[in-house]
Write a structure and sequence with these properties.
homodimer, Rossmann fold, 12 helices, 14 strands, globular
């Protein structure tokens, strides 16, 4: 039976992985998750993309917002604010459990990958969730307001500052988490989720050994383009591409992943464009579970044509 | 105007301090608070007696239970339990704000006394709240189940194990927090709250310099007996006294505080007993705010007779 490995960031990537889980046995799927967004707030270790995937796959997520828990309460934030605590990052009461338990486990010397596997196990998630690395890698954005941490840029400043460069502090010394290279080399299909290529996928590719493994992998590698009609669905992809000097085209996405991917799944609106790589089309907008299944199935079907 | 210093533990002591705040300007009151119950759970620094006093004096407390926040939610505990986290100690969502912010401030190098003053300030508490020490002192109970940490004995084991001895780990190396000795030496009246003498007041007296300052203080020192009708109102005082071989009498309480106190305020039910020290009587049961004011006023009036 085929094994699928997906490189993914946050909300958009989690939708794709959920779609995959509905068209194949979840235990055959490995998600390699961006941890470049991870940060520390109030001494708590927060892994937003891992948590988004965990909530999405466990069914405990807020399906309206796409991140955080469903039926969340906010008493902690209110109390912390009354004591002068920060309130720029939303820490739900239930969400805190992940952060507090993760922080405590890290302090005991457990690795992020073991902690993540334990959380997934406790919540009945059969998909294998791997952080890209157990080492700290921090996405930093050089902007007209100076160099910003990812969460400062993304949450506190709402992507308003103009970006000129992105780098991943700590990446050169980081190692892929246990299982990451094996999941790439052993996969029958490899997908790159329609997450932000610069902010969510590049940190994964920046961990030494991962890009090389993708190039060496026997499996076809298909990326799902984050662009629809020359725009990003959500988040700062389009704005960033403009600021970094890339045209808002699938050709630019294909060029970004050149050497890594064998094909690009693009939105049907964009089929007139030739991305300069093997491509397939579907409606890539994922509004509901049906869409998620369809996009996942289209990516898998496309990959099968590349394998032959 | 007179300055009052109170040595206090948790719930019972907080009631007395609240009563005092209603009969005199709160900013003239200094509470020296037991921190022998302090412990770490999930990496969070928890100071139960400081928090009980903070909640009580700020009006944010749960007046039914006598500890914790009012209008508390419990989403964190539920989520943590679903991840295999401990559930023997109740951590409310809003309560977590104190623990998370305190832990973070301690990590930054702030002292518990500064942190406590900041919390009190943020919540408009005018009473000066001092931890007995900024150093770690941990109450340990020797029982028929072995040596237990305070919270294990008190919360997890509900005081069921039979105690044979109590000691305060770290006390001999601890220093009184800044302001503690000054609050004792500069007070016009010193009260010892009707907290558990063995578990809540003894840790304070075990910090080097505090008992000596109480003996040297010019102010009269009045303890309010925790016994009513030869029983403790709440908590393990009576059970502990039996197990430690003390008769359940005010004489035993007076003997315990011998050399420290000048007088004992006892319950009117117990006035036939002579505690062997100067004493006064009132109804010492504190059900409501009126009771708290009455007991505080009785203690202050008694102290005035001792000063003359």
């Amino acid at each position: 039976m085929s094994r699928v490995t997906v490189l993914t960031g946050g909300v958009g990537g989690a939708k794709l992985v959920l779609g995959l889980c509905h068209i194949m046995p979840p235990e055959r799927i490995t998600a390699i998750v961006n941890t470049g967004d991870d940060f520390s707030l109030l001494g708590l270790a927060i892994s937003p993309d891992l948590d988004t995937l965990l909530y999405t796959l466990s069914g405990k997520g807020d399906t309206e917002k796409g991140w955080g828990r469903g039926n969340e309460t906010w008493t902690f934030m209110e109390a912390a604010a009354s004591l002068g605590g920060p309130n720029w990052f939303q820490l739900g009461d239930g969400d805190l459990a992940l952060h507090v338990l993760r922080t405590e486990a890290l302090r005991r010397g457990e690795t992020l990958s073991v902690i993540t596997a334990n959380f997934a196990g406790a919540w009945g998630v059969a998909t294998k969730m791997l952080p890209m690395s157990d080492d700290l890698v921090a996405t930093k954005i050089t902007t007209d307001e100076g160099e910003l941490d990812f969460q400062t840029y993304f949450v506190a400043r709402r992507c308003v500052p103009r970006a000129s460069a992105i780098h991943f502090a700590g990446a050169s010394a980081a190692q892929p988490a246990p299982g990451v290279l094996e999941a790439i080399m052993g996969a029958d299909t490899i997908l790159i989720a329609p997450s932000n290529p610069y902010l969510s996928v590049d940190p994964i590719l920046a961990v030494p050994g991962i890009a090389k493994a993708l190039r060496a992998a026997k499996a076809p590698v298909v990326a799902i383009s984050p662009l629809i009609g020359g725009q990003s669905v959500k988040g700062p992809t389009a704005k960033l591409m403009r600021e970094l000097g890339h045209p808002l085209t699938n050709e630019a996405i294909a060029a970004h992943y050149a050497g890594i991917i064998d094909g690009l799944l693009i939105d049907e609106q964009d089929q007139a464009q030739n991305p300069g790589i093997l491509f397939a089309c579907t409606d890539t907008l994922m509004r509901d579970l049906g869409d998620r299944r369809r996009v996942a199935a289209a990516a898998m079907a496309f990959a099968r044509t590349l394998k032959a």
